[in-house]
Design brief:
alpha/beta, Ribosomal Protein L4, Chain: A, 6-stranded mixed beta sheet, 6 strands, 45% helix, 10% strand
Amino acid sequence: MPVKKKVSKVKTISSSLREADEIGPKQSNSDNFPAKIASSKTPRNDKKEMGLANLSIPVYSLAGNAAGAMTLPKEIFGAKVNKQLLSQAIRVYATNQKDLPGSTKTRGEVEGSTAKIFRQKGTGRARHGAIRAPIFVGGGIALGPKPRKVRLSMPQKMKKAALLSALSAKAADKQVVGLTGVDKASGKTKEIAKLLTQLNSKFKVENSKLKSALIVIDGKADNVVRAVRNIPGISILPANLINAYEVLKHEMLLITKEAVNVILGMSETRTSESGKEESGRAPLARLAEASAKRARMTIKKGEQK
């Protein structure tokens, strides 16, 4: 009987592809679509460029009046947002603020006799020692908690990158507002409350009130601190003490032009510190030259002898 040959699936697929090539590519229906629908979507790169180019924020005075606009530096507020790094930074800052005061007493710390409660044999009961054992009511706690501190750390470069990511995320969400006239603050709470009311009316998000805000200043401002400390959810920090956790913790970021310059100067100095590696090689080069000189001197002494 004739044997039937098995045709593999690979051969059938390859033959079908050859036939398709010979026939020619089919015309797609996308050519019939209108030009408006085809050009409705903008490329991702164009969207990124549009977001980076729009780094201008409105500036308001303490009275809540518009005082022009301010362009944010691209190096700080236009960086790439690293969500994983932000998550790690928040975990580090939140963990370092925790206190774990829970404490229990072990069998050596509770009150009670250390004598054996009854004899070893003859009672028909299980053998026991002191009454302070964890098995008895009023005894010590086995494997209970003790006061401890958990401290996590991050490298300086990661902290800086997390701060830039947080500031860039706030700028992308349009939650950064410029502030001017801080040095003329009177120290009255109603002055800052009026400013927050004005911002709440101009920056409404889903008809919700402004719950929290962070005011970033360049230095010491006692009047602003006195005016803010009685308003819940409002914090004030100098520019050299802000971090990613405080920036993301608050809903709105109010920053002065001087504070922006301070942050920009801090980022520039930290980047210039990375150039110290070249200067650190100089002592190593000197040590190498000194050791080579000593080797030459010993060789000359050996030749003289």
